[in-house]
Amino acid sequence: MSDRKFRTNAEMARHYFFELLDDGIEHSVTEITGYVFDKTDKRGVSGGQLTQSMISSAIRGYFLKDDKTYIQTRRGFYKKRDVSVSVDIKTEVRGLITKVLRNAKNDINRCFIIDVSKLNASAGEITELQKLSEHILAALSELIDYSSGGDSNE
User: Fold this and answer.
1) pTM higher than 0.70
2) Which of 38, 37, 46 is nearest to 9 (CA)?
């Protein structure tokens, strides 16, 4: 049994739950319970018997909190969340959004390339179209800059 002092059986069970899952591998409730029993000699903090239901209750209590460091992968199986995956997904989504916005900007820019000699429009109407084009393209440039995390040269 560990030299570490725990205040409650739940605190002790969660400590060993976290310790086992820190390897990043999925573990079953049976493995987790066995690990906790091995670490504690099936003894609670006051020397009484530690039971499977105490361990299950401690794990369930953890999942009632907002901390999502550890996840339930399927019924009866748990693992530590891979934080790098979340960061990679965020980066990938930002990249996709930036690409879509850049394509939209290029498409809209092409729409405003107009041979004014072929337009049946007044000088005022043409000026309004130019202003509209500038505002839309500036807004898209801001969105591209935001979605790319400020790494854009738009």
Assistant:
1) no
2) 46
